[in-house]
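Forwarding the complex inputs:
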Amino acid sequence: MNAFQLYFRLIQISLLSRMQYRADFIAGILGLLFWNVINIGLIGILVTQFTSLKDWTLWEVVFLYSLWILGYSVYGLFFSHTEALENYLIEGSFDQFLLRPASPLIQLLGREFQFNEIANVLIGLTGISLAYTRLDLHWDGWRWGFFIAAVVSGGMIVLAINLLVACTGFWTGRSRGTAFIVNQFYGLVHQYPVDIFGNAFRVIVTGLIPVAFMNYYPALVLLDKVNYASRGWVLSYMSPLVALLLVGIVSVVWRLGLNRYSSSGS
Amino acid sequence: MKLFWSFARQNFHALAAYRFDFFLRASSIVILMYAIRWLWIALYTQRPSAFGVSLQQMVTYGVLSMAIQNLFYTDPAYYMARQMRTGAIDLDLLKPMDFHLHMLARSAGEMLFRVCVLALPGILIGYLLFDLRLPANWQAGFFFLVAFLLGYLVSFHLGFVLGLLSFVSIEIHSIDWAFHATERFFSGQFIPLWLLPGILGSLAAILPFRSIYATPLSIYTGVLEGEAIAQAVGFQLIWLLTLFLLSHWLWARIQVRIISQGG
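Prediction (whole assembly, two chains):
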């Protein structure tokens, strides 16, 4: 069995066990839908009452929001068990992944298929299609390709950042705190165009926690907002590159972490 | 009353053990204060002194809202649902104190702890770095404190009622979520309620949630003055009384039905 087959077999098992609690399942999806509607509603009201947010109109902000959530749902559906790493490390139950004859990473990620995230896919697709028609966009084949690349890169970027954060647990034991801070940046970039904030913020979400590559930068390309006169215009096209780079970094760090791991012995 | 404080103090000390956790929450407050200030600046360049409120007032409203946000979510519902699920609830019931009051003591301890380690430092940082202004006069400051306390009590009772519901249905995770989303929308935490259009505005005016953020913050920033303050505080009192009675009625009915899982 190769890694992919193994991963999907594990996902299948986790899905079956999840389906045991069908009511929970549906409630979870509805809850997530509701949460997103409220969120978009809040931003929508702000933007309409003030006609625009800097040079971002209502539907452009909806586009940003939806692009982010589509990328995130790729992560959420398949890889969200990353965040559980800390618990395994603290309880010492991480050993189980090392004992079985398969890649520990695949075993970890295969633990959970977050079916709830379907709600995010729905919200994302609805938001993008509404924005696409309202903004009267006409993408050529190249743009469609870039859109799909941006969504996949978005998923990879979250995976890489969250796994990097989780990996710090190999050294420090705890990683939840860092994750909490990183999540604050996720939330802000998710909802607002990065350029309304100060430069310090922009530097952080571009270079340090490069979450702006999930929606802000690719959206500049997809909404024809790239300012070619400015120095940083090339960043708008870099999402796939950033994703690859991050995945490269995290695979090295993961290996280092595994070598470093010693069981807590409980 | 002595017992009340001993329970409150206990939770205060229990929380003080997690220093790292609070360092993180504090950093997150700073990030959010920074962000909200820029957000309002961006919006106000679009439309200066929108709705008769100045940028200065709006920034103060937003930054202060971020500084005090942790005070309201002591989440008795979460605690109660957890105790019920694990069966540890019978230990809470054995305590020599009315359950409702015991939960309030726990929550108050947590709230006071957060005032000390999060809100006060947050307000100071907001004042120094993010244009948070002091209230215009002592009345605004005083009634802000009154409205804040009432808002806290309303928030606690909403959580308590939610927690009681968890005794009946065991799993309230999703209800809890939907509830917090609604609260977020109608409490005035992120967008002040005078921005809500039409029916949403009227809904916000009758729901209890505006007691939580909108009332204290509007008093602090001077958006509400004179008689309007009295009206808003009266509204808080009415909801507090309603929720208090509802809590007691529900607790009386649910208490006899509790079946512990035996821990």
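The mean pLDDT of chain B is 87.
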